[in-house]
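tool_call: predict_structure(chain=1)
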Amino acid sequence: MLRRHGEAYLRDYAGHVGRVERRVVGAITACRTATLGGHVEACDDCGATRVAYNSCRNRHCPKCQGPARAKWLADRQGELLPVPYFHVVFTLPAPVAAIAFQNKGVVYSILFKAAVEAMTTLASNPRRLGAEIGGLAVLHTWGQTLTHHPHVHCVVPGGGISPDGTRWTSGRANFFLAVKPLAMLFRRLFLERLKRAFDAGALGFFGDLAHLADTAAFVAHTAAMRRVGWVVYAKRPFGGPEQTLAYLGRYTHRVAIANGRIKALDDDGVAFTWKDYRQNGAVKFMRLKPDEFIRRFLLHALPDGFHRIRHFGFMANGHRAQRLALCRSLLTGQAGPSADKDQNPPAENPDNGIGVEPPPCSECGGVMRFVARVPRGYEPPGSSGPPFWCDTS
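tool_result:
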């Protein structure tokens, strides 16, 4: 889609596309083409050759997330505890999501901080769990139809470290934290942080939201948000580490839409599947004009340097290893994921730019070996484009 219509979209909507979005389009368009260079592979057995072009490795590219996900999951495997894990989702209401879209870096960070603070504060209450919890949070900004729908998925072990650090406090088997007080606390913490950002001049308002630059209008807008319910959803526990790792593999490195959901593509538009959760997840089809599809896809481009996966509590980066060791020692000797198992991802081939082992030879199934580099912009004679395993849609 971007190769076919991306250049025209950037030209037609030049005044509405920023530097980040232009770089995303450029990266995905060039991904696994001669533009990025690559290498030639030859089969050890039959001598057949093929060209493998480099990937763009852009975090918004659907085809480049597999290797990144595999490496990230391998790193996480040894960090999982032998306890049930819970899934909690924090969602911004539409009027606040509109502010978030015009202030992505600032408001998405507030979303993370308010969600984490709400969970850790409530969990530390002796009348609730009474413990220090930890976990990770993943930002998603899309709904099934690619509209802007910012929310954070949190994966949290079902328990935590007691205040004195001498025991592991387990929660109830099918219950983490009460959703209603969690949602109310999340709403309050978020709006307080949003007001501080406004007072500091960190928010910008444009178009339909330009009136919110006025203090009275902003205060009235946020006051109205205090009177509506904010959606916080706690799903049933996954089970143990294996189920949790499988879940993380589906959620952590997602982009707005995967290539597998796109079912038809032509000059008039693109058709893709989506799940209607108002009808029990019924699978439906949607067809959009090329410029509307690209517009929706680019809604979800993140600011440079923004981290969409964050750890918190006893899983925070600064002390994760030490706190996890304490957790395991407190879990009465229960064995967590074995440190003796090979937890490394497949060796990365520095020459193929893809980060995974190349598929076997299509002629005989033999092993493909690096033969020569292909410089950027050069397409070897006889090459028919990207290798057969690369989806170029």
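agent: Residues 79-256+299-330 form a domain with the Replication Protein E1; Chain: A, fold (CATH 3.40.1310). Proceeding to next step.
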